[in-house]
Amino acid sequence: MKSNIGINKNRLIKSIEEMAQIGATAKGGVNRQALTDLDKVSRDLFIKWCKNENLKITIDKMGNIFARRQGKNNNLPPILSGSHLDTQPTGGKYDGALGVLSALEVIRSLNDIKYITEAPLEIVVWTNEEGCRFPPAMTGSAVFSGQYNLNDALLIEDLDGKTLGEELSRIKYNGKTNCRPRKIGAFIETHIEQGPILEIADKSIGVVVGSQAQKWYEVNIVGMEAHAGPTPMNKRKDALVGASNIVLLVNSIGNKFQPGGCSTCGVLNIKSPSRNVIPGECFLTIDFRHPSDQRLKEMDKNLRLEIKKIANNYNLKISIKQILELKSKSFNKKVRKTIEKVSSNLELPHQEIISGAGHDAVNINDIAPTGMIFIPCVDGISHNETEKALKKDISAGAQVLLHSMIELADNTK
Ligand SMILES: [Zn+2]
């Protein structure tokens, strides 16, 4: 590791604060949703900063921005780093912008000392990561990695009926370059953790090993409506009692599958509720997550078996429908090792961590060696205007990114 090279912490923080002025909210957060006028202003500022560093800008048909710094050998595939500039309506200063501006700080630091890497470097800004205006989330990276069709993405509508494609043209970020996989040496995304694990463990760096497997379900519980007074307890078919047992069951499965299991009932509806009627029909949703596909399968088996028992015990008809399944993903070993080794060499407290949320890096992992650097955020809070990251952790994340990118760029073949 080149120990004499470092990032400029104050310059990085200043850029994060300046970017956060675009769409700043009264409570100290940011509202800069994808392809709004404010998104354009933030993109323009990013490009201005890149041009100051002599980077070559390319914009693809999804509006993804690539800013390239040439290496010694430009036939080598580039080392990419970046994230997104769009935010939630009640977003914070760091979710997304941290990853883009940490990558920019890496380039600025290398320019300061005129250090040229073997492979070229690129900063990337992915379009529509949050997906709050144009669902689903992470569309820019999904199209780039071939998981989502470009034309379908351009036709996604917001609540006013404006399409993603129209809005991209309106803010003049409908680029000419094809949006599709190309040879990439490695991709690293720096991001706030959006959970409390690193903060509790007092670690500045999370070496992200991958993302969790998920299964989502919809459950219908059918019993029979009856009068709350004259119906004896042993004659009832109470759908809400069944639903309540399922809520407790789901919670107990999450607890049973530790470490790593997460289980949530997020929606519970009673059909035509009335205070003196025994509920006849209920609907609820279940969200299961686990880092291991196999363990998630066992959670699924457990759920189905126990639901059958609940149906029998309470004389109910219960149907369960799986509506989403995502396999777990592991990030590239070499990239993970590089981040780990660099963190050790810099004597920064670090640990391995699983990403609980989705990120562009999870999409790019399908087409290129990918890794992520997490830094803690205060109280694990994000998608919230009070989102905060400490200066020492921001600096640590960028420092690890700098040395990881040099390591990867100088050692690609
Ligand atoms: Zn994000």
Written description of the protein model:
The protein has 413 residues and is α+β, with helices and mostly antiparallel strands. The chain folds into 2 domains: 9-211 and 328-410, Aminopeptidase, CATH 3.40.630; 213-326, Alpha-Beta Plaits (2-Layer Sandwich), CATH 3.30.70.360. The protein is built from 12 helices and 16 strands. The longest helix has 21 residues, at 293-313. It binds zinc ion. Zinc ion binds at residues 84, 95-96, 129, 191.
Summarize the structure.
With 413 residues, the protein is an alpha+beta fold.
SSE layout and pairings?
Layout: H1 9-20, H2 37-52, E1 56-59, E2 65-69, E3 79-84, H3 97-112, E4 121-126, H4 139-144, H5 150-154, H6 164-170, E5 186-192, H7 197-201, E6 205-211, E7 213-222, E8 226-227, H8 239-256, E9 262-264, E10 268-270, E11 277-278, E12 281-290, H9 293-313, E13 317-326, E14 329-330, H10 333-345, E15 350-355, H11 360-364, E16 370-375, H12 391-410
Parallel strand pairs: 3-4, 3-5, 5-16, 6-15
Antiparallel strand pairs: 1-2, 2-4, 6-14, 6-16, 7-12, 7-13, 8-11, 9-12, 10-12
Helix pairs in contact: 1-3, 3-12, 8-9, 10-12
